[in-house]
Amino acid sequence: MTTIFAHGQAVLPDRVLDDAVLVVEDGLIVSVSAALPGAVPRGAIDLRGAFLLPGLVDSHSDGLEKELRPRPNVELGLDFAVTSFEGRARAAGVTTCYHGIGYEVSVRKERTIERALQIVHSLQDRASSGCALVDHRLLHRLDARDPNALAALQRALDGPVSDDLVPLVSFEDHTPGQGQYRDPSYYRKWLEGSEGLDEQEAQRRVDDLINERASRAWHRDVALRWLSDAAAAGRARLLAHDPVTEEEIAVAAKHGVAVAEFPTTLEAARAARAHGMDIVAGAPNVLRGGSHSGNVSAAELVAEGVADSLSSDYLPSALLAAVFRLASSPVLPLPAAVALVTSGPARTVGLTDRGTLTPGQRADLVAVTVDRGWPTVRLVRTADDQLGLVS
User: Fold this and answer.
1) How are beta strands 365-371 and 374-381 bridged, if at all?
2) Yes or no: domain 1-54+356-391 corresponds to CATH 3.10.25.10
3) Are 73 and 33 in contact, with CB atoms under 8 Å apart?
4) Superfamily for 56-353?
5) Which of 96, 134, 187, 384 could pair covalently with 57 via S-S, beta carbons 3.0-4.6 A apart?
């Protein structure tokens, strides 16, 4: 099956090709060229000057959790939430989505290990249904201090591994005083705002959590050693979540970590670059103009050349918004900004078949206009759509 897209501004890796014609055959890009007068075949899809981008690759999305529980004390059915969030992601231009699966027990985030396994099953069922509108994949998020979480993750990873499906595992410790909440006052303020606690009660809750998790700090080394062995055997691709210091990055590199995810300081990001790690920053951080937890600005990481990709974290629409905000400033030209949500994350997660508008790549495509300064997704086509694999 051949599909032709015409009269779009194709964002290529190194430039924007005005009035482009892109040809797709059997779900793959065959050619991208400038339109010639009278040379565009009848039946081509007219993009009317919209930007044509590769489909967005989101390496870290927690949005499904919010879809499951849109309001306090309201929980929707899991299969419905997966389908509903899928539509939200696709409408934001996301064609490959790595869903964060939290292997942990967190009352604050309503996470349990049993729930994590249920989400995995539901996503896998949707992915194999022939109805999915995006490519659903998994990002396994391991609480470094939870022995039961590690045991569950070991079972989840006990199976065959293919080259393009090496599991992603994020090594995390969300104890106040660590990582994202290295300043525990931000955790306390979150409790005050979200649960209506006064400062003293919120501080008591923070202290109790720190003390409770201190009894399991020994498990960090156990979990990291196991993950290191899994990475060395090619059974996992490791991400260090919320690294703070150069020393943390050095330890992570020693254990085979390939990706620094949401470094909280410029020091950590620079150290990750020195160790050859891919670096992921948050698109909402760019959109907001800074971190909500007092950490380094993602735009600063981009400007310093120590960010390879942006993830949605919890808001799919933030990806394109961040791209066009960066491209409208002196920070980056548009092709480099687009790479942060396409080829950059594709490389980060180990996918080589998508992320650029070049021959041989998957024809995951997004057409975008910019209206009053903000991007609007006008069309999304995936390789599976064009192969007729989505029923």
Assistant:
1) antiparallel
2) no
3) no
4) Metal-dependent hydrolases (3.20.20.140)
5) 96
